[in-house]
Design brief:
29% of the residues lie in helices and 14% in strands. The chain is built from 4 helices and 4 strands. Strands 1, 2, 3 and 4 form a 4-stranded antiparallel β-sheet that branches. The chain is rod-shaped and about 150 Å long.
């Protein structure tokens, strides 16, 4: 029993010396306190000289050998350092319900029919946005002589964005003095254009 204890003690001391020497950077020779001719792992006093020394991995007492300082450290079991190679899952945010926009009013041009009278030919065009008349213009009016003057009076009274057609939003217009026939023909073409528009 005593011999075995001494053998274990000697083995532990020599293993520690080897680890210290191996782990110290720049140390290439034996520790200074060892004699030059003395073996690194001598047979302990009282040990059986015929018995082979124990290998560094053999531990009769069951203790685990100490690790070298240069030995690589493996990761702890159960922990992985690599990312899993699965597909990434993303959750889609709920979409807001769609709101329907009110239809934007479209601008339309409506042309009334041409109307003949004893002075000439009258034709009216209106511009409508939504359910409103926003402009009125004459495409044709009687011309020549006094007709030019009367046609100009009709044009000034009824046409344009600020004329009587836009203000009244109807064909119930006041008759232009001195241009009764032309005024009536204008109203007739205008009334037909309004009926097409609405």
């Amino acid at each position: 029993m005593r011999r075995a204890l001494l053998a274990i003690t000697g083995l532990a001391a020599s293993t520690t010396a080897l680890v210290v020497l191996k782990g110290s950077p720049g140390v290439t020779q034996a520790a200074p306190d060892l004699a030059a001719g003395q073996p690194v792992n001598p047979t302990p006093q009282g040990a059986d000289p015929g018995r082979a020394p124990a290998a560094p991995g053999d531990d009769p007492a069951g203790a685990t050998p100490s690790q070298s300082a240069d030995a690589p450290v493996s990761p702890k079991p159960g922990k992985t350092t690599a990312r899993p190679s699965g597909t990434r899952t993303t959750t889609k945010a709920p979409t807001a319900p769609r709101t329907t926009k009110a239809p934007q009013p479209t601008t339309r041009r409506i042309t009334g029919p041409g109307v003949d009278n004893e002075y000439g030919y009258v034709q009216v065009q209106i511009v409508v946005s939504g359910n409103r008349i926003i402009d009125a213009t004459t495409l044709s009016l009687p011309s020549g002589g006094e007709s030019d003057i009367h046609s100009g009076d009709v044009r000034d009274a009824y046409n344009g964005t600020g004329g009587e057609v836009v203000r009244k939003q109807s064909a119930n217009l006041n008759t232009v003095s001195g241009a009764t026939e032309t005024s009536n023909s204008y109203k007739q073409s205008l009334r037909a254009a309004i009926e097409q528009a609405f």
